[in-house]
Specification:
The structure is a single chain. This protein is of the alpha+beta class. The chain has 2 domains: about 140 residues, Sandwich (Jelly Rolls), CATH 2.60.120; about 100 residues, Orthogonal Bundle (Arc Repressor Mutant, subunit A), CATH 1.10.10.60. The chain contains 9 helices and 12 strands. The protein has a 7-stranded antiparallel beta sheet with strand order 1-2-9-4-7-10-11, with helices on one face. Strand 5 and strand 6 form a beta hairpin. Helix 3 packs across helix 4 and helix 7 packs across helix 8.
Length: about 250
Amino acid sequence: MSLALSDAAEPLLIAMYEAQAEHRELGKHSHARGQLSGLRNGLLTIGTDAGAWVVPADHAVWLPPHQPHYGWTHGAVEGWSCYIAEAACADLPPHPCTIRNSGLLREALMRASDWHGPDLSDEQRRIALVIMDELRAAPIEPFGLPMPRDPRLVRIARALLDDPGKRWSLGEWAQWAGVSERTLSRRFVAETGFTYTIWRQRARMMRALEMLAEGETVTNAAFDLGYDSVSAFIALFKRTLGVTPSAYFPRS
């Protein structure tokens, strides 16, 4: 554990690093501090009442102070968490989001996880300031899945999360939920920022990351999630993450 740039009563930054070999679930909870959790290896899912965020390797999820959340890991993971005092979070993102780690942010946090106690050297203080600067500058990545608020749309969204491969059309979902197709289409955009089609695509990709992290084959993931072909799934995966599934999840 690390205490950085602090007095004993209110350390600005607390960092820790851990590796775990098995699946782990965290029940719903919150922290008075802002939380940044990132991975070097593995996959983590964080959820709130407003949405869910997948955290692949080389990424991190940011949660502002007092944000209720839950989470679970998918098999073995290796990563770190950083907790930032509420007073220092004013110019950090006000909503949960996934960011891409810079190499500098990752290495600075790994260094900070070895610090002990509130008394820091000048070098350690400079590193803590770098962590804050890198977090402020970190680009937000598209791994979040905001939830709608309309109860009819929530029902559809939860059904899609339970079965992302379901091949119902927009009209079929509208009829099932008791809403007109036009209203469904319009409100999905208004409440989530995405069209129904893009939202479903993101839900599928999040589930694909989870399945592959748990050892599922690319072929099974593609067809279980409703893709027309394995090649179509691989192409979308590469457009989203920059590499193919086999490169992202190399098998030993």
